[in-house]
Each structure stands twice: as structure tokens, then as C-alpha cells.
């Protein structure tokens, strides 16, 4: 199996469940509060590891009260963190998540994630070259991607970018990415383009993979747009579903599966993730996926 490196954010997530959305200036009672592990980089690493991937996480956390909790967590999840960046004088990243009728709103404070930058990746560049598949997101500085992606592309590495939170990316970066996995709302934000959705997808055949939640996944095969249906599931919490898809997609690639089979594997993993609360706590294990795939 090919080795996977995830380079990205690590957070502690703070959840509030509510049956009423507050207006500006209004105070309402929440139904439940809980904490969990998050950050899109950590999410993808845990998702891939639970599905049997050989995963190393590159990222930054604060030298604070959350440090040992996170180190123990990643060890339990079998995620290699030997190259983790521990930063003094700054807090670990945090996300504040409001859950309402199975959907979510999220506010992120980057904290130590700001230090997963070009300087850090220059320090670990030689170690990074030992990996085959690379997963990125946009909760860390864009400057890091602009430095590292051209180097990885030159070495023939597989590069997957989940462009969230969505920002416009320079064409020089887009051209060097192997797979781009925005959701249906992020596409126009990420790609500077005046064309409609189908025309944009046609310009990035088998590279632009659009995730559409309960409507599955779309991509262009060079001739037309292909739509792969989602597996029906009762959504309890959609937080981390996209990260689960990307992590599962990477594992399937690492195992050498055909492209469309990799997409379906990601779709099935995402469908399991939404049935439980929490970004990482709901992510499926390999045995769960094997049972689901046997059911068809």
C-alpha cells in the first residue's frame, strides 16, 4: 500500500446542539453541549487510518492543556505524529460548531494551525518525500501550499486538495493538483471562472470531484459529466462527512483501486459518517465498510 501524508489543521471542536437558531443579539437555550476532536487535516488522517491507510499527520498544535490529550488520541487512532509541530505561546486550534436539524454552522479560530506554514514544511521537506499520496485543505496558510505543491508535483506525487474553507486558488496551484474535491457550493469560490458548473468541470476532467452531500458526487470523464449517487442514510451530523470522503478516497487510491471505485468507496464512507455525532467519532472503521460493501 502507498503511504499517505496529511498536511493540515488540528482542532478541538466545541459543539452546541439547538432546536432554535438565535437571531443577532438574542440568547436561546441549547439542547446539548459536547467536545470532540477536529480540524480538517486531523479529520482526514483519522478517516484514512481507520480504513487501513498508512497515515502520517503533519501539522501544528499549541504547547497547552490540549497537547497531551491530542497526542494520546492520535496514538490511539494509529496516526503517525512523529513530525508534529508543537508551538509554544499559542493555543491549539478550535472550532465552534452549531448543530441544527442535522446541519451545521462552524466558526474556526486557527491558533497553532497558522504555524503549519512554508517554514515548517521546509523543515520537514526531506521526510515528506518518503510519502506517495498527499492530502491538503485550506485551514492552514495558502503560502504553504504554494511552496510545497510544486515540489511534490515535480516528484510525481499524488496531490489531493479539499478546498475548504473556500478561497480562490491560483491556476499555477490548480494545475499541479491531482484531485480537487470541493462541495457544490465551493466550486465557484475556488476556481476563478465565469463559466457555468458543467463547463468548469469539463476543463478539469477526472481532477475536479464535486461532492454534493445526499446527491452524491459529480465529475467529468473527458466526454460528459458523470453522477454517482449517494447511499441513503439518516443524517445525524454532517460535520466531517467531506473529510471522511477524502480520507477514504485516498485510501482506495493507495490500494490501487480504479478511479470510479475510489469515488464510490469515499461515498459509502461518508454515508456512514453522517449517522453519528462528531467529525471524527462518527468516522467508520474498515470492518464497518467491509460489512456495508458486502450488503451492496
From TrEMBL:
GO molecular function, a single term: ribokinase activity
Binding site for ATP: 183, 211-216, 242-243
EC id: 2.7.1.15
Active site, per annotation: 243 (proton acceptor)
Keyword Cell inner membrane attached: no
Top EC class, one word: transferase
Catalytic activity, as annotated: D-ribose + ATP = D-ribose 5-phosphate + ADP + H(+)
Localization annotation: Cytoplasm
Description of how activity is regulated: Activated by a monovalent cation that binds near, but not in, the active site. The most likely occupant of the site in vivo is potassium. Ion binding induces a conformational change that may alter substrate affinity.
Cofactor(s) the protein needs: Mg(2+)
Annotated residues for binding of K(+): 237, 239, 273, 276, 278
Nucleotide-binding found in the keyword field: yes
Keywords recorded for this protein, A-Z: ATP-binding, Carbohydrate metabolism, Cytoplasm, Kinase, Magnesium, Metal-binding, Nucleotide-binding, Potassium, Transferase
Gene3D superfamilies for the chain: 3.40.1190.20
Chain ranges of the Carbohydrate kinase PfkB domain: 1-284
Classification via HAMAP family: Ribokinase (MF_01987)
Subunit structure comment from the entry: Homodimer.
Role summary: Catalyzes the phosphorylation of ribose at O-5 in a reaction requiring ATP and magnesium. The resulting D-ribose-5-phosphate can then be used either for sythesis of nucleotides, histidine, and tryptophan, or as a component of the pentose phosphate pathway.
Protein name: Ribokinase
Amino acid at each position: 500500500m502507498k503511504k499517505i501524508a496529511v498536511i493540515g489543521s488540528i482542532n478541538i471542536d466545541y459543539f452546541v446542539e439547538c432546536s432554535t437558531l438565535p437571531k443577532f443579539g438574542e440568547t436561546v437555550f441549547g439542547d446539548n453541549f459536547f467536545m470532540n476532536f477536529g480540524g480538517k487535516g486531523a479529520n482526514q488522517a483519522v478517516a484514512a487510518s481507520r480504513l487501513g491507510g498508512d497515515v502520517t499527520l503533519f501539522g501544528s498544535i499549541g504547547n497547552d492543556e490540549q497537547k497531551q490529550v491530542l497526542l494520546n488520541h492520535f496514538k490511539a487512532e494509529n496516526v503517525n505524529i512523529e513530525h508534529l509541530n508543537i508551538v509554544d505561546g499559542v493555543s491549539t486550534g478550535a472550532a465552534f460548531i452549531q448543530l441544527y436539524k442535522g446541519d451545521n454552522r462552524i466558526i474556526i479560530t486557527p491558533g497553532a494551525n497558522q504555524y503549519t506554514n512554508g517554514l515548517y514544511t521546509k523543515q520537514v521537506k526531506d521526510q515528506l518525500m518518503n510519502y506517495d499520496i498527499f492530502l491538503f485543505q485550506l485551514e492552514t496558510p495558502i503560502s504553504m501550499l504554494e511552496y510545497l505543491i510544486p515540489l511534490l508535483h515535480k516528484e510525481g506525487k499524488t496531490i489531493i486538495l479539499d478546498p475548504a474553507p473556500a478561497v480562490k486558488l491560483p491556476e499555477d496551484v490548480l494545475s499541479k493538483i491531482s484531485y480537487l474535491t470541493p462541495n457544490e457550493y465551493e466550486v465557484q469560490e475556488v476556481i476563478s471562472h465565469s463559466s457555468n458548473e458543467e463547463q468548469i468541470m469539463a476543463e478539469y476532467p477526472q481532477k475536479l470531484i464535486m461532492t454534493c452531500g445526499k446527491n452524491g458526487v459529480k465529475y467529468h470523464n473527458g466526454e460528459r459529466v458523470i453522477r454517482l449517487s449517494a447511499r441513503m442514510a439518516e443524517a445525524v451530523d454532517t460535520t466531517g462527512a467531506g473529510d471522511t470522503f477524502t480520507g477514504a478516497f485516498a485510501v482506495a487510491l493507495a490500494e490501487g483501486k480504479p478511479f470510479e471505485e475510489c469515488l464510490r468507496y469515499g461515498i459509502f464512507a461518508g454515508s456512514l459518517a453522517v449517522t453519528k455525532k462528531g467529525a471524527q467519532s462518527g468516522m467508520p472503521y474498515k470492518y464497518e465498510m467491509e460489512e456495508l460493501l458486502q450488503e451492496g
